[in-house]
Amino acid sequence: MNFLCHAMPYFDTPLLAACTAVPDWLSVVDRKIRARGKLASQFLDSDDAALRDVARGVIRHIEDDRWFHGTQAFVETNMRLAVELRDQLPGDSGFRPTFVAHILIEMLLDSFWIRDDPAIGDRYYSLLESVSTQEIQRCVNQITGKPTDRLAPTIERFIDIRFLYDYLDHDKLLMRLNQVMKRVKLTPLPNSLLGWLPQASRLIESRRQRLLTPPDGSTPFESFSFS
Question: Could you tell me which of 7, 23, 5 has the C-alpha nearest to residue 15?
Fold first, then answer.
């Protein structure tokens, strides 16, 4: 899952919802610092309410990713898009098509929510503005045991840039994909993919509800409407 899908089921608990993004923020700050579930679980009963919510957010990220990536819909969609990407990227039979397909599914699922109801994106960013980035940093430092002073400014920059809205425009979406490529040291994607992105988007949208339904049939997005 990407940022918005991770947070939406927990909007009523702002700090928890915000901290579903902690593992992804840390990957930008320092890939050597990991917010692991085993570490976070040690703080679920803490007397520190903020620390409890930050730990819960980390664990929800991990557990929700586990079921999401394990669904038949995700596995099948990722495989199909990877095959199509190999056709779009001649000679690229390595890791990149599978990785790009994975990231694209997650980005576009976020974009559909904002397209259908822009207030969802606005609510997410308002929620982030309502919590203390310094408090998040304090709690994350305690959970990981590897202090950093770069997390709070990274979160503040994330809020300022508001790049989730860029996912609605395919040119900007490709730019954001290429930022990820650069961060993980993969070759940038060519502009020729712009002609293929609408096709990929239609496929992902046709499987949207299946992609966002856990194998146990529960409904984490029941407060929101699939258009």
Answer: 7
**What spatial distance separates the first Cα and last Cα of the chain, rounded to whole Å?**
19
Q: Is the pLDDT of residue 222 over 80?
A: yes
Encoding tokens for residue 208?
């949207």
User: Domain containing 125: what range?
Assistant: 3-211
26 Cβ contact list (under 8 Å, min separation 6): 33, 34, 35, 140, 144, 151
- pLDDT, tens digit (0-9, with 9 covering 90-100), for 193-214: 999 999 999 999 999 999 999 9
User: With the C-alpha atoms ordered 129, 175, 204, 187, is the resulting torsion angle positive or negative?
Assistant: negative
Indicate whether 221 belongs to any domain. no
Residue 222 belongs to some domain of the structure:
no
Tell me, what amino acid is at 192? S
How far is 199 from 46, CA to CA, in rounded Å? Answer: 48
The predicted pLDDT at position 93 comes to 58
Domain total in the chain: 1
Amino acid at 7: A
| pLDDT tens sequence across 116-138 | 999 999 999 999 999 999 999 99
The alpha carbon of 192 is separated from its chain's Cα centroid by a whole number of angstroms, namely 25
Q: Is residue 227 situated within a structural domain?
A: no
Residue 184: which pLDDT band, with cuts at 50, 70 and 90? confident
